[in-house]
Design goal:
With 185 residues, this protein is mostly helical. It has 2 domains: 1-94, no CATH class; 95-185, no CATH class. The chain contains 11 helices and no strands. Helix 1 packs across helix 3, helix 5 (69-91) packs across helix 11 (169-184) and helix 7 crosses helix 9 (149-157).
Length: 185
């Protein structure tokens, strides 16, 4: 059983032990689920890596730094992390059935932090560059918002942050999906 199957089994034993007990062969079920998860993560990560917005932004970033290796590694790691989160949310985590997913999403959209907050944050950084967070803080903000660190760096260095955000709307939309899925699990 791979790491994903083990995580699924641990989660289900904790949150739905009766479902695990009712299975004829939980070992096989979670081994197969782990393989399915692994395959879907690989497929989604490749799709995210091939995303033209992601590739263009990373290429621009690598021209600025003069190195292709680190931005490429960061892009691939981000794609993998996002893919893991999305697939695990879809296939493993047991959700609260009290509210249908579409209603939960609508409620979340009405109460979530707006992308405007991120744009305002970038504009404040530009107005006072000494407010630029340390790398660790920037990485945490990227994790909290479910966006790649390079996206935040690009947003803060863009001449017009709102325009940069509009040009990368696909990334913001995917980040919103990831944040929603985090909250409903």
């Amino acid at each position: 059983m791979n790491q994903y199957g083990k995580k699924a089994l641990e989660h289900w034993r904790r949150y739905a032990p009766q479902r695990v007990e009712q299975m004829d062969d939980p070992e096989t079920f979670f081994s197969d689920l782990g393989l399915e998860i692994s395959g879907q993560i690989s497929d989604l990560a490749r799709q995210l890596e091939a995303n033209s917005d992601l590739s263009l932004a990373m290429a621009a970033s690598s021209r600025e730094t003069g190195s292709r290796y680190l931005p490429e590694v960061a892009r691939r790691m981000t794609a993998r992390r996002v893919a893991e989160e999305v697939v695990m949310d879809e296939l493993v985590w047991i959700h609260d059935p009290s509210l249908p997913l579409d209603e939960a999403r609508q409620e979340w959209e009405e109460t979530r932090a707006s992308d405007e907050n991120l744009i305002s944050w970038a504009e404040r950084i530009q107005d006072a560059p000494d407010l630029m967070p340390a790398t660790v803080d920037l990485e945490q903000k990227a994790k909290d918002w479910a966006v790649p660190t390079w996206f935040l760096e690009g947003l803060t260095s863009a001449e017009i942050p709102r325009q940069y955000a509009n040009e990368h709307q696909e990334i913001l939309a995917e980040a919103a999906n990831v944040r929603f899925l985090r909250e409903v699990r």
